[in-house]
Amino acid sequence: MHDTFDTVITNVRIASMADNGQPYGTTSHTAVGIRSGKIAALFEELPADISATHTVDGNGQWLLPGLIDCHTHLIYAGDRANEFEMRLQGISYAEIAKQGGGIKSTVKATRQASEKALFDSAKQRAERLLEEGVTTLEIKSGYGLDLDTERRMLKVARQLEDALPVSVRTTFLGAHALPAEYSNDADGYISLVCDTMLPDIAANKLADAVDVFCESIGFTPAQTERVFQAAKAHGLPVKAHVEQLSDLKGAVLAANYDALSVDHIEYLAEEDVGHLKDTVAVLLPGAFYYLHETQKPPIEALRKQGIPMAVATDLNPGSSPLASLLTAMNMACVLFAITPEEALLGTTRHAAKALGLNDRGMIDEGLRADLTLWDIDHPAQLVYSINGQRPKARWVGGRHV
Ligand code: NIG
Ligand code: FE
């Protein structure tokens, strides 16, 4: 049969990241046929009787799925370099937050910023991630904490998808911090999130998921649960920042609400790991590093119980100003002792799961043609070096970018 493709990539080694029993999901295929934005065929040997609009010689390089950064806060105004200085003078992240700095100071700057200013600065940060092979990006709101600014942030996130070669998934994080106008009335603010903000954002289809910062400096488990219930009522899946600074049992609570992911989890108790079977544990080594955290996530227990682990940048102005997913992977290996293969799974197959996406994160027939080509001898090299690699070519939805 004579088969036609939009693009055929030949002469590649493939790390599919699929669960095929081989390290990195390595396959014996050497060529990929792309049609209508999808991986239409994988070939061990390229048949003679096919035709393609574009043919790309991979020169024996490695083809991997596009990378997925499943946790970022990359839309914001201002920066927090002053707090970096304060922390180096011995004041803690939690103490700065209590003094009205931290997330609240970014909220102040973000509320004052125009849509265009937010878009322009976020685009630059997103470009840093894309240069490293990111083809899907999650972006949270949470620096507005009023309907107007939260909406503006999520609109900018949607605009980034139109402006850049990347899929964007948006997450409404209204319950990120208590805005100044609600100080001493956290329950009142949660009512605003659940009864006013969430319905509006859901009706306007601005969010793909809902997140909560469940923490001593964020919201209590009871408040978190109210947001989860409201999200469910609007048909939106939940995710949560949990056990970052203390163990409030937020991960188990989130898992009970079928959370797509539980993120941070440094203080997650080993005995709670068994509850996380149907979710994804998102490791954020950037925040761990930047805040000088010493409590590590329970990696061995997660591994033993087969809980999928993802790795993300958490790119944000306060706890993780890290615009490099490859560096986050390296950090996860060095700081948390996960393997390079686990790190790569964490930014491909498992990151897709953390976003509820089952059409990407691996190289397989029928999946989106989100692909990256790397001039390396082995996939572990991507994780081993720091600022050592850039993809030689990238395809997003089958389009060479
Ligand atoms: O994921 N933990 C809460 N949210 C962010 C920090 C945001 C900030 O400090 O601005 C995080 O670490
Ligand atoms: Fe975060």
TrEMBL record:
UniProt similarity note: Belongs to the metallo-dependent hydrolases superfamily. HutI family.
Reaction catalysed by this enzyme: 4-imidazolone-5-propanoate + H2O = N-formimidoyl-L-glutamate
Gene label: hutI
Name under which the protein is recorded: Imidazolonepropionase
Residues reported to bind Fe(3+): 71, 73, 241, 314
Domain Amidohydrolase-related: 63-399
Origin: domain of life: Bacteria
Cofactor(s) named in the record: Zn(2+); Fe(3+)
Function: Catalyzes the hydrolytic cleavage of the carbon-nitrogen bond in imidazolone-5-propanoate to yield N-formimidoyl-L-glutamate. It is the third step in the universal histidine degradation pathway.
Localisation per UniProt entry: Cytoplasm
Residues that coordinate or bind Zn(2+): 71, 73, 241, 314
GO MF, any single term: imidazolonepropionase activity
Biological source species: Fluctibacter halophilus
Residues annotated to bind 4-imidazolone-5-propanoate: 80, 143, 176, 244, 319
